[in-house]
Design a protein that fits this description.
mainly alpha; 12 helices; Tetracycline Repressor, domain 2; about 230 residues
């Protein structure tokens, strides 16, 4: 009796065609879901199955686009850093007045953090637990060599501060202190949000009102503190 040969060509072709085609929308949906999960739980607490569920894809498809959790974590960190830092670099290196720079940095930072309140805690945790992320942070600053962008920021700000100091309109302050103080005043309420809510008995809507007031008051508070 002749044995009928099994046609494996069609099956192989079926398996080959089953491999998903690259789709920018799917990849973006996965990255959005990963961003949400990683920011809430950090790299250590994030699980690939939770990201797949939030993105509405199966586990195999998640691995097709991002081969490992580490690669996905790197993509999320780069996206998070890019969201906050490059606009601040551009503002500080611009020819805007000192008052306008301070106002724009405050408004940008607070607006971004209101939309993503877990962002500061996530970034700080990642940098503490994954020091290698610092290199990604530098790359996210402006997509250029920091040796090139640093003089643009420091040189412009130093000149503006020196002019104010010589005119006796501002107390002397190092450029590094100026930048760190300004950014810290924006970020701290979000990094310490659970503590502040507990300390002051705030609900989320009360914290939101606090941030809105801060958005209007912080620029003048910061500059007034530097007056002689």
């Amino acid at each position: 009796m002749a044995v009928k040969k099994r046609n494996t060509t069609g099956a192989a072709a079926g398996r080959k065609s089953a491999a998903p085609a690259a789709d920018a929308d799917t990849e973006q949906r996965i990255l959005d879901a990963a961003n949400s999960v990683f920011l809430r739980r950090g790299t250590a607490g994030a699980r690939m199955q939770d990201i797949a569920a939030e993105a509405g894809v199966n586990h195999a498809l998640l691995h097709y686009y991002f081969r490992s959790k580490e690669r996905l974590a790197e993509a999320v960190f780069r996206r998070a850093a890019t969201r906050l830092l490059p606009p601040v670099v551009a503002i500080l290196a611009s020819d805007l007045s000192l008052e306008e720079k301070v106002a724009r940095v405050v408004h940008h930072e607070l607006d971004e953090l209101r939309a993503a309140p877990h962002l500061p805690g996530y970034l700080l945790s990642e940098l503490n637990h994954h020091p290698e992320r610092a290199g990604q942070l530098v790359q996210a600053l402006a997509g250029v060599d920091p040796e090139r962008i640093r003089p643009a920021i420091f040189g412009t700000l130093a000149k503006q501060i020196d002019e104010r100091v010589k005119a006796k309109k501002m107390r002397a302050i190092a450029v590094e202190q100026f930048i760190v103080n300004l950014v810290s005043l924006c970020i701290f309420p979000f990094a310490a949000r659970p503590m502040l809510n507990t300390m002051f008995g705030w609900k989320e809507e009360e914290f939101a009102r606090f941030v809105e007031r801060r958005r209007g008051e912080l620029p003048s508070f910061f500059l007034d503190a530097l007056r002689p």
